[in-house]
Recover the amino acids of this structure.
């Protein structure tokens, strides 16, 4: 049985050599011993130009201890039972964004116990998992068509919102010019190619084309969200359709970001 866990939070002061010695002690205290064959693996990348492949566990720990810093490492630590069969193998990959721990063993109880030991000893954690709400669209891709007006006020709000979305790893598409007709063919195609329509309503004026875009998106089974500046005249139920409607104070679209993020989390968007 093999089980793997990926962790995104660990102590800033994690003493890596000491942490690995604790794994060694875990195995030895259970009557296991080091494998002397060539199934060990040790690799350290110190920077873009320098790396090392230690030949033993002790060399591996010594290199980690002596290095002022390292970018990444990976290792494979096999332990044998009294019959010289591989009973426990601990594989660890460290990157700046995560630590991956994969453990293979002859018994699942041993594997689970080793995972629990490492998680506690190394103080590894993860952010909470946000479960999508029941009844909401599922498995949406992180793709958005951003509908807006083309004056300075709306462009500034759209620019701020677009930067926020791109930091969340959304691919954002926009129309590139003012249009008199409600939905040109090019815009229709862009809306259909994205999983989410997000419209920005600002100012006291006619918003018919934004309403038409949102209705078109919903008619093509796209999820539609409209962020509306307080004081703007906009009817979210026009044409019998009720869109997700998020308000923000005039000039401060960033005040809508928390509710937008909550909305994205509830949808279970891929990659977020």
């Amino acid at each position: 049985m093999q089980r793997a866990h990926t962790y995104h939070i660990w102590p800033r002061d994690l003493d890596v050599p000491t942490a690995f010695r604790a794994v060694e002690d875990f195995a030895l205290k259970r009557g296991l011993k080091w494998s002397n064959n060539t199934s060990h693996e040790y690799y350290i990348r110190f920077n873009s130009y320098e790396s090392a492949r230690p030949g033993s566990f002790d060399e591996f720990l010594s290199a980690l201890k002596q290095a002022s810093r390292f970018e990444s490492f990976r290792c494979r630590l096999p332990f044998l039972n009294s019959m010289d069969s591989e009973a426990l193998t601990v594989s660890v990959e460290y990157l700046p964004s995560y630590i991956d721990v994969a453990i293979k063993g002859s018994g699942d109880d041993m594997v689970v116990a080793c995972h629990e030991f490492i998680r506690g000893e190394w103080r590894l954690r993860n952010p909470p998992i946000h479960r999508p709400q029941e009844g909401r669209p599922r498995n949406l891709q992180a793709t958005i068509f951003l509908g807006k007006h083309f004056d300075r006020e709306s462009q500034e709000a759209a620019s701020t919102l677009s930067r926020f979305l791109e930091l969340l790893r959304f691919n954002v598409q926009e129309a590139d010019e003012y249009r008199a007709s409600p939905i040109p063919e090019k815009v229709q195609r862009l809306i259909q190619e994205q999983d989410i329509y997000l419209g920005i309503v600002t100012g006291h004026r006619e918003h018919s084309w934004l309403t038409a875009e949102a209705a078109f998106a919903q008619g093509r089974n796209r999820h539609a969200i409209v962020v509306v500046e307080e004081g703007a005249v906009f009817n979210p139920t026009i044409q019998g359709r009720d869109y997700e409607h998020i308000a923000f104070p005039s000039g401060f679209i960033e005040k809508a970001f928390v509710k937008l993020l909550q909305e994205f989390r509830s949808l279970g968007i891929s990659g977020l």
About this structure: The radius of gyration is 27 Å. Residues 152-167 form the longest helix (16 residues). The chain has a mean pLDDT of 87. Residues 2-122 form one domain.
